[in-house]
Every structure is written in C-alpha cells, then in structure tokens.
C-alpha cells in the first residue's frame, strides 16, 4: 500500500507539472470548467426561484444534494481521462508498454493521469454549496455527523471508480468505445437531483442494480438524518461489491487483449 500511495503522489506531481507547462492551457481549462459550473448552478437558481420542495426537503436541502453531485463530479473528473483513453491505448498498442511494468496494470492504466483543472473548480463550488445548504437548512453539526459524511464520501468515490470503470472495459472488445462517453455521462447526470423525483422502480434500480443514487444521495440523506442503518450498511457494502466485480471483469478483459501486432 505504501508503494502505491507513493506512486500516486508521483503521478499527481507529473500530471500537475505537465498541465502547468503551458499555463494558458491550465487557465483555459479552469475557465471552461467554470463555464460548465455556472450552467450547473442554474439548477440551484431555478430551485430557489420556483421554491421547489420534494417531500420534506426544502430548497436548502436540495442545495446540499446538488453540492454533493458537483463535488463528486470533481473527484470523478480527476481520473476520468484515463477511462476514456483506454480505447486509444488498446488501438495503438500503448497498453503493451504497461503490461511489463512491475505494478498493477489496472492501477497504472486507470490512475496514471490526474486532471486538476476540472477537479479544483468542481471541488470548490461543491464544497461551498454543501456548507451553505447545511447552514441554511439548520442541520446540526457534530463530530459523528461530519465523520460519517466524510466516510460516505470516501465510499462514494470507490463506488464511482468501480461502477464507471466497468462499461469502459468494452474497449478491450470493441477497440473504440467512444459512444460510451455519452451513455456514462447521462447515467452520471441522474445524480444531480434527489432520487425521490423518480418513480419507485427507478429508485430501486438506481440503488441496488446500478447504484448511482448511492454516490450522491446517501451522503446527503445521512446529513439530514434520513438514512436508515440498513441503507448506511448498503452504502458501505455496495462499493466493495462493485470493486470486486470491476476487478474480476478487468482481469477477464486483459486476458482477451492480444497486443497491437495481432
């Protein structure tokens, strides 16, 4: 574990150095992501302007959900380019060079590049939205509540990595998986509002079969005292199950890889 943590630090350092090599590109990346962020914040403006309430959730509670969605988007965008680049690696044969490295192939392929411009913008905006909504909603602040919330965010990050890695493994079969970007982006956008706006069957599918609602909804529900012990347990178990499934499918996908020369 110490070895991989050290490697992660090296990858982060190299990524930030390469992104700052041309600072105009870094600044423009932040500017573009800020533009997208303003579009996302329109959700908050509409919610407050219309005065939307979902059950017992006021606009202040909805702001927390949106803030968690924005924050988790930032974490997802950190390593997202690695997922979308797998098809190119398979097609060009670049993957051959990583097969002989003395580290986990999955680790080096999926976590070697880190996109900080997208992360910084989303993390800042998401944190501000969460804190503002938390304060305006009058939710209690305690060590256990904060610790539980941060723990669920860690679980959500593991679930995000595992769940969205799985469809990108099709690149090993189809070589080009460009169409998956739109599909996974649409799936991710299901998280931008509380899952209560969907029907019961959609909520069940999004919680137990494709547990995207666990990623952003469960930490918010925990803050509001609306997450049952059973659901809290599922928030912990589902990332582990998803990671095991992703690991098994990764090994199967790599076995089907036959290098660029064949």
Main attributes of the structure:
mainly alpha; globular; 262 residues; single chain
Quote the average pLDDT. 84
Question: What portion of residues is helical?
Answer: over 70%
Form type: globular
Element pattern in H and E: HHHHHHHHHHHHH
The poorly predicted ranges are none
Q: What portion of the residues fall into strands of 2 or more residues? A: under 5%
Q: Measure the end-to-end span.
A: 35 Å
What structural class do you assign from the helix and strand content?
mainly alpha
Rg over alpha carbons: 19 Å
Number of helices: 13
How many domains? The number is 1
- Which sheet architecture does the biggest sheet show? none
Tell me how many strands there are.
0
Verbal overview:
With 262 residues, this protein is mainly alpha-helical. The protein has one domain. The chain contains 13 helices and no strands. It has helices spanning 2-20, 23-50, 59-84, 86-92, 95-99, 105-110, 116-136, 143-168, 171-174, 180-188, 200-209, 212-223, 229-255. α2 runs parallel beside α7, α3 runs antiparallel to α7 and α3 (59-84) packs antiparallel against α12. The longest helix is centred in the first third of the chain and has 28 residues, at 23-50.
